[in-house]
Amino acid sequence: MKQDTLCVQGGWQPKNGEPRVLPIYQSTTFKYESSDAMARLFDLKDTGYFYTRLQNPTNDCVASKIAALEGGVAGVLTSSGQAASFYSVFNICEAGDHFVASSSIYGGTFNLFAVTMKKLGIDVTFIDQDASEAAISKAFRPNTKAFFGETVANPAGSVLDIAKCARIAHKHGVPLIVDNTFATPVLCRPIDFGADIVIHSTTKYMDGHATQVGGAIVDSGNFDWEKHHDKFRGLTEPDASYHGITYTKQFGKGAYITKCVAQLMRDFGSIPGPMNCFLLNLGLETLHLRMPRHCQNALKAAKFLQKQKKVAWVHYAGLPGNRYHALAQKQFKGGLPCGVLTFGIKGGREASIQFMDSLKMIAIVTHVADCRSCVLHPASHTHRQLTDEQLRAAGIPPDLIRFSVGIEDPADILDDLKQALAKVKA
Ligand SMILES: *Cc1c(COP(=O)(O)O)cnc(C)c1O
Question: What is the pTM of this model?
């Protein structure tokens, strides 16, 4: 199946007489006729469902659709994007280990890595993703286990050079993990550029309608864990909590995802509800139609804003002249990264707030990558505890407005921007 067909028909493949639409297996448990049949499942000797914290048929169908869309071999869904970020690293890192991450990542991921995972004894070094290969390489240590970045950073909008980062990671014998939330596999498949693991907050474009919070992890199956046997002992040596199973030996290319489910899902339990997976699947069925429209509308809005006297600056990698424009042309289908752009109003923080309060159709919400246009002002909302100076240090100008351009008629979007700009005192 081609990408567009996978969006519509991937995952659930009904047999004769079965429901055409993915059924919601809203059941915590599954019935067996012999004690031994269930025991074999617990030992991972047979595959089958027994308890929804580990696996559920609705969830698995949606995970396999996302894995296919990303060009991976296996996938698992999580109850949030945060859980996906945590599991993706924790699956191969333990106390005493270290990993490298781009500093241009989602704020929630930054906190998880910089504060919470440090409390677990896992150290991180943040790097400037635009630096040279030699400069980034300096952050790697003998105990480094992964390199993490975001295809398009939320909210900064910077674009990760995935091929460059994959080269650096592989030179140091570790996998590259990429958060592909903003681009989605419709616009960019990080695995095609050398990424090993891809994660998502499915809350955003994949769901697309702001109905559920969720996450996904996909493994390319390309990273050779056995080649670095001593670095990844959790995968290459027997797991005492599973009767001495060795994931790489028993599951080959499925090792990473199987360990993630068998260990992390078992012990931490961040499983999404089957109903949420059903809603996510409805979103995925139109992802290939929505993404190009988000991008076209964002480019129109970016070009419009650029021409306005009251607008101080516009950042969108799809705009000619943007520092990431050439990379965007190479890495994204159609050359456009997503439907999210950032801009500032002349007059700083106060003027930006006045502009946002004057919007009518475009809503102020703590959300992004939704079919409905929306805005957020990090200085007043997600980062409101910071002073203007601290904001600038974090790469977030006090006037920055994050604009998530929806799939409405672009004329209505531009009209709303126009009338709100008119209300801003020059
Ligand atoms: C929102 C977001 C997350 C966190 O996902 P949740 O589903 O909110 O837990 C992670 N990465 C990116 C890029 C995001 O935009």
Answer: 0.97
Is 150's C-beta closer than 6 angstroms to any atom of ligand 1?
Answer: yes
- pLDDT single digits (tens) 219-254: 999 999 999 999 999 999 999 988 899 999 999 999
Distance in Å, CA 46 to ligand 1 centroid:
34
Measured from the CB, is residue 207 less than 6 Å from ligand 1? no
Distance in Å, CA 240 to ligand 1 centroid: 33
Q: What is the pLDDT of residues 120-152, one digit of tens each?
A: 999 999 999 999 999 999 999 999 999 999 999
- Contact indicator for 83, 235 with CB cutoff of 8 Å: no
Residue with CA at minimum distance from ligand 1 atom 7: 81
10-282 CATH choice from 3.40.50.2300, 3.40.50.720, 3.40.50.1370, 3.40.640.10: 3.40.640.10
Q: Which residues on adjacent β-strands are paired with residue 364? A: 375
From the CB of 59, is ligand 1 less than 6 Å away?
Answer: no
- Centroid of ligand 1 to alpha carbon of 250 (angstroms): 32
